Amino acid sequence: MEKIDHLIQKILQNRVLTHVLYWTASVLLWAIVGTFGNPNKLEPLVNKLCYLPAQLFATYTFIYYLLPKFAYKKKYLSFGIFFIISAYISTVLARFFKVYVYETILEREQAKDSIIDILTNIPALLAQYLLWVYLFTLFTVLVKLIKDHFAQKQQTESLKKDKATAELGFLKAQLHPHFLFNTLNNLYTLTLYKSDEAPDIVLKLAQILDYTLHQDKNEGIAIEKEVELIQNYIDLELLRYGNRLDFIFNKNIQNKKAIIAPLVLLSIVENAFKHGASGDHGRPKIHIDLVVKNEKLQFEVFNSKPKVTQVDKTNFKKGIGMNNVKRQLVLLYPEQHQFTIKETVDSYKVILEIELVGATVI
């Protein structure tokens, strides 16, 4: 079956071969249908072959000249004029082959029309040949338009997906390097004092870098892996703030293998540390609740806001931002998530709900 599908795809990709097969099939079908009730089995085949040059001219002129050059550009007057000209040429071709080929092969003993008669007898061209030339032409045009419609639709969907994938990659790439710089500075301090925590910090940082550089290329990842990343991130941030941070991370995960798109949850946590703990010289508060139950994820992140707005010379607080997160969720979980922000003068809370069943990740 695979070989047959491959052969069909190969044929369809060869435009010339596809057209040859299409017209060959039309000739054979016409010839077979015409034999029913016809004592002369050769007549339908000869008849179709005599009409074929006219039908080819009419069809390809219509599809590749009249439609793109005039109809699609709304030049209807020009379209009408050139259609009349092409219809005249097509019917002349049909009548010429009928008189000088069809009648000769079938040995019809009757006076043949002259070339002048064929060119000037407009009523005969319209009455006897126009319908038979353009009946199959219009069918072919209809097939072409349907094919182009689906091809354009598929191309549009493909472009949308490529755009979404590229945009998502850009959004993921915006994880602010300030976190990395802070962690390295803290690590440097620990190594100066020969702290026993230094190896553990190196390991956590290595795991985060591996995840952000490699694992986020996956369409989805087990929730336990995302939680492990978040915990490593939190541990490194807590190294910065120490005991002065009121921090809680509650987890209730029934299915640790549930699939989620990488880095979405981390972005929300990172935002809480940037806007909650950073710049607050008092006792900032960050509370995180994660529940994965019945194929539904609920993630709530609460952070206090500093009473005094600090000047952000390094643009650290711009970071990824919630607009970035919202856009990621639209791309990753269309119609399958709810994202709410509750903000007051002194607090900021993000509530995210995702339906994991049937969720599509790019």
Keywords:
13% strand; two-stranded antiparallel ribbon; 362 residues; 2 domains; Heat Shock Protein 90; 11 helices; 5-stranded mixed sheet; alpha+beta
Describe this structure as you would to a colleague.
The chain is an alpha+beta fold and 362 residues long. It has 2 domains: 167 residues, no CATH class; 178 residues, Histidine kinase-like ATPase, C-terminal domain (Heat Shock Protein 90). Helix content is 62%, strand content 13%. The protein is rod-shaped. About 2% of the residues have low confidence.
Beta-sheet strand percentage? 5-15%
Helix content range of the residues, please? Answer: 55-70%
Strand tally, please? 7
Q: What coarse outline follows from CA principal-axis ratios? A: rod-shaped
Largest sheet: 5 strands, mixed
- Spell out the CATH superfamily of the largest domain: Histidine kinase-like ATPase, C-terminal domain
> Could you name the CATH class of the largest domain?
Alpha Beta
Mean pLDDT: 79
Rounded Rg:
36 Å
Low-confidence parts: 311-319
Summarize the model shown.
A five-stranded mixed sheet has the order 2-4-5-7-6, covered by helices on one side. A two-stranded antiparallel sheet has the order 1-3. 62% of the residues lie in helices and 13% in strands.
Compile the SSE list and pairings.
Elements: H1 2-13, H2 15-34, H3 43-71, H4 76-105, H5 115-120, H6 122-172, H7 178-192, H8 198-213, E1 221-222, H9 223-241, E2 246-253, E3 259-260, H10 264-277, E4 285-293, E5 296-304, H11 321-332, E6 337-343, E7 347-355
Helix pairs in contact: 2-3, 3-4, 3-6, 4-6, 6-11, 7-8, 7-9, 8-9, 9-10, 10-11
